[in-house]
Amino acid sequence: MSQYALRLPDSLMEAARKVAKRDSTSLNQLFLTAIAEKISAIDTEEFIHERAVRADPEAYREVLRKVRDVPPQKGDELP
Q: Which whole-number Å values give the CA distances from 14 to 24, 25, 31, in the listed order?
């Protein structure tokens, strides 16, 4: 396992302490989770972008043309 000395502004460190205490977790675990979530978000954005570049809008429209035009079931309506 690697180590990295992290320098944080006092205000961010205090906010992190409060969140860690509220979630009953350690600062280390809070930082690890935050970093993992950020990496996951960036990877997901890249994945979606790569898929979008390969998208075929006409094929998408063709699929949509096959969908029956019926009202949504009760409870599935948009507000």
A: 15, 14, 13
The tens digit of pLDDT for each residue in 26-68 reads 999 999 999 999 999 999 999 999 999 999 999 999 999 999 8
DSSP of the chain: ---------HHHHHHHHHHHHHTT--HHHHHHHHHHHHHHHHHHHHHHHHHHHT--HHHHHHHHHTS---PPPTT----
Exposed/middle/buried for residue 16 (C-beta within 10 Å: 0-12, 13-18, 19+): middle
- Side-chain half-sphere of 37: how many Cα atoms within 13 Å? 6
